[in-house]
From TrEMBL, chain A:
Predominant subcellular localization, coarse grouping: membrane
Cross-referenced InterPro entries: NqrD (IPR011292), NqrDE/RnfAE (IPR003667)
Organism per entry: Leeuwenhoekiella marinoflava
Membrane topology classification: Multi-pass membrane protein
Protein name according to UniProt: Na(+)-translocating NADH-quinone reductase subunit D
Superkingdom of this protein's organism: Bacteria
Annotated localization: Cell membrane; Endomembrane system
Alphabetically ordered keywords of this record: Cell inner membrane, Cell membrane, Ion transport, Membrane, NAD, Sodium, Sodium transport, Translocase, Transmembrane, Transmembrane helix, Transport, Ubiquinone
NCBIfam families named in the record: nqrD (TIGR01939), PRK09292.1 (NF006777)
Enzyme Commission number: 7.2.1.1
One GO cellular component term noted in the UniProt record for this chain: plasma membrane
Pfam families noted in UniProt: Rnf-Nqr
GO molecular function: oxidoreductase activity, acting on NAD(P)H, quinone or similar compound as acceptor
TrEMBL record, chain B:
Classification of source organism: Bacteria, Pseudomonadati, Bacteroidota, Flavobacteriia, Flavobacteriales
Region (Disordered) location: 207-243
GO MF terms, alphabetically ordered: oxidoreductase activity, acting on NAD(P)H, quinone or similar compound as acceptor
Species: Leeuwenhoekiella marinoflava
Location(s) in or outside the cell: Cell membrane; Endomembrane system
Family from the record: Belongs to the NqrDE/RnfAE family.
Superkingdom to which the source organism belongs: Bacteria
Pfam family, one: Rnf-Nqr
Topology class, membrane: Multi-pass membrane protein
Protein name: Na(+)-translocating NADH-quinone reductase subunit E
């Protein structure tokens, strides 16, 4: 017996590509872009969102029959806010430097549209197990884009990955720098995140013409 | 002067959309037509100008370490700042609800024009972001907090208005098919953000961005280099003088 039926696998894998939360559903861009100058921050953000979205989806899904629909937004916000406080406190305790880099953007997971979007679109109408898978899948799709953007911005912007100098030492002129390569400091500035995401969208849509918009 | 400075800084330099990417979701989703963009932008200005001062009061008298002193000396050690997320979002959600009811009662015309956007605003990152930045930037007085909320709202309004106008026009351009819609909007926003960066020097030469350690190290090494160069130059000049 397979642990995941075909439908469940779809829940997990669709958001990675053809139904990606960032490039297709246009959700969760707010906090995605500002923190991608470093790969490490992107990974931490992706993991935090995965925790909040998966647990939140299960909680909302368990409560879906007792939440009056008129106040559901407030209930959802309270659930997310509680989870985000947990993430924030854990980060402050175990990765203080990183939580300073992420600053307000951890708090902004609360209003990350991807979370409210999945609660509204999925968790309110499905059981806890499938909601959990949906949460993991969507957060993974979100994290994937974050990590791709973080990878390119850190590699081209500061010549490092996760803090390791993969392209050589810019000061001692070793590695690529010995032949005159220079870091593109522009990649570290926030506008480049938008342009990198734009290029990802371009690549993805030119590979799959079904995703192209009318105008 | 402080007020004027904060006002322009919040609109142009720390623009919500172009500098911190707040409210991007609704910025992208509602910017297809100028008229709807104006409606949402106005609602954002309004809600930010109300909620930022509210949350400032909350931060000042409930949340920050020692804020509960007004209750009595024994409360002076309390630090409730870990509750800020939940209290801020609760304030925002209730304020949005309240604003909706009041506007519906007293200004039905405005209500019909803002209509669907008001409830959506509770989950707009720009609103919570405004309050969180107010907290982390340590804004000093209630007046400044109001100013900050209002100006951030105006900055967001400008941004969505500009992109909506561009998107209305770009429909007549021949954009490569895979870039149409979302892709080109991202790239245009990036270019606009680069444009807005030039406002950075408007006030005090721009706020100092946290540089990556590499860059800092580089600068330090350069400093050392120049220092050694200076020394060698001094030696050379001394030698010349001696001769």
């Amino acid at each position: 017996m397979a642990l995941l039926s075909k439908k469940d696998t779809g829940l997990l894998l669709d958001p990675l590509a053809d139904n990606n939360p960032i490039t297709i559903q246009v959700l969760g861009i707010c906090s995605a872009l500002a923190i991608t100058a470093q790969l490490k921050a992107s990974i931490v953000m992706a993991v935090s969102v995965m925790f909040v979205l998966a647990v939140g989806n299960v909680v909302i899904s368990l409560m879906r029959n007792i939440i009056p629909s008129k106040i559901r937004i407030i209930v959802q916000l309270v659930v997310v806010a509680a989870l985000v406080i947990i993430v924030d406190q854990v980060l402050k305790a175990f990765a203080y430097e990183l939580s300073k880099t992420l600053s307000v953007f951890v708090g902004l997971i609360i209003t990350n549209c991807i979370i409210m979007g999945r609660f509204e679109a999925f968790a309110l109408g499905n059981g806890p197990y499938r909601s959990f898978l949906d949460g993991i899948g969507n957060a993974a799709g979100y994290g994937l884009i974050l990590i791709i953007v973080g990878f390119f911005r850190e590699l081209l912007g500061s010549g490092t990955l996760l803090g390791f100098k993969v392209l050589g030492d810019p000061i001692a002129k070793t590695g690529l720098y010995a032949i005159g390569y220079e870091n593109n400091g522009f990649m570290l500035l926030s506008p480049m995140a938008l342009i990198v995401v734009g290029i990802i969208i371009w690549v993805q849509r030119s590979r799959n013409s079904a995703l192209i918009e009318e105008n | 002067m402080e007020h004027v400075e904060l006002f322009f800084k919040s609109i142009f330099i720390d623009n919500m959309v172009f500098a911190t990417f707040l409210g991007m979701c609704s910025y992208l989703a509602v910017s297809k037509k100028v008229s709807t963009a104006v409606g949402l932008g106005a609602a954002v200005i309004f809600v930010l100008a109300v909620t930022v001062p509210m949350n400032w009061l909350l931060d000042q008298y409930v949340l920050r370490p020692g804020a509960l002193k007004w209750l009595g000396a024994e409360y002076a050690d309390y630090d409730l700042s870990f509750l800020s997320f939940i209290l801020f979002i609760a304030t925002i959600a209730t304020m949005v609800q309240l604003v909706e009811i009041v506007v519906e009662k007293f200004a039905p015309a405005l209500y019909t024009s803002l209509g669907i956007f008001l409830p959506l605003i509770a989950v707009n990152c720009a609103i919570l972001g405004g309050s969180l930045f107010m907290q982390s930037r340590d804004i000093q007085t209630l007046g400044l907090a109001f100013n900050y909320g209002l100006a951030s709202g105006i900055g967001w309004f400008l941004a969505i208005l500009a992109i909506a106008a561009i998107r209305e026009k770009i429909r007549y351009s021949n954009v490569p098919a895979p870039l149409r819609g979302l892709g080109i909007t991202f790239i245009i926003t990036g270019l606009m953000a680069i444009g807005f960066m030039s406002f950075g020097g408007m006030l005090t030469g721009g706020e100092e961005k946290t540089e990556t350690t590499d860059e800092v190290a580089k600068v330090e090494v350069q400093k050392q280099d120049t220092a050694t160069e200076d020394e060698s130059l001094a030696e050379v000049s001394q030698e010349i003088n001696n001769k």
